[in-house]
Amino acid sequence: MTERDERPGRTVRKAVIPAAGQGTRFLPATKAMPKEMLPVVDTPAIQYIVEEAVRAGLTDVLMITGRNKRSLEDHFDRNVELEVGLEAKGDSAKLARVQESTDLAQVHYVRQGDPKGLGHAVAVAEQHVGDEPFVVLLGDDIVDARDPLLDAMIAVREEHGGSVVAFMEVPEDQIHLYGCAVAEPTGTTDVVKVSGLVEKPKREEAPSNLAIIGRYLLDPAVFDVLRETPPGKGGEIQLTDALQVLASGDGPGYGVHGVVFRGRRYDTGDKLDYIKAVVRLASERSDIGSDLREWLGEFVASGAGSQD
Asked: Which pTM value belongs to this model?
């Protein structure tokens, strides 16, 4: 096994965003458009994820992409013709919004090839990440800018070393939808020591109600483990299986802690939750929020749209 630098205080600079999935739950919309480009109000979901990374100081971003994902690259690249047109019209507000995504971060891209699971997608990032700790952000979870989850995870890494996983508490009847933690308190509020992880357990077999959400701060030791990780559930290489090894073993870079997140999170992973996320975020907007909240109240009070 390659020896890793496990200095707890080492700066975290890089973010990895797996974006190679086909988005089949949103067909036919995702037949020709990546699910990551679905708008949440007027901003693609993927931009929220990159913005979150940048707020935590992670300005080197690697996207793991696949076929039909070219529009992701186009979104974070310049559109000279559009910018010239907006400038000629004197529309500085829209010009600033267009240029915002271009200037956010240094974004790199690599293709996953065969989609063999989240663990495989993370392994593809090794050449870019190198021998550094890095954050993995999944695009189905949008974390509110007012709740700096990544900052908390980086602080835990600086104190304890190893890897850090974000959890949330969920009802018992929902735990089978998530990876689940075997964990114990550390004495610090909302920080736990992880001794085991179970991928989507049956309700009666779940060791806790702590569900993994899509944020991971990984020590580079994970790459050695992933190389030895066989396919798991669904015939895919599961990141959860690699984290189980890191949590239960000893060695440079081993050990896993968790941060229990209690802030605002918007799930864009299925159609109903996606619509809820759009409504929640739109209702807080200064430009349309007031009118939307008024209309929603009237709509609900009228009973419109209800099934007889």
From this structure: 0.89
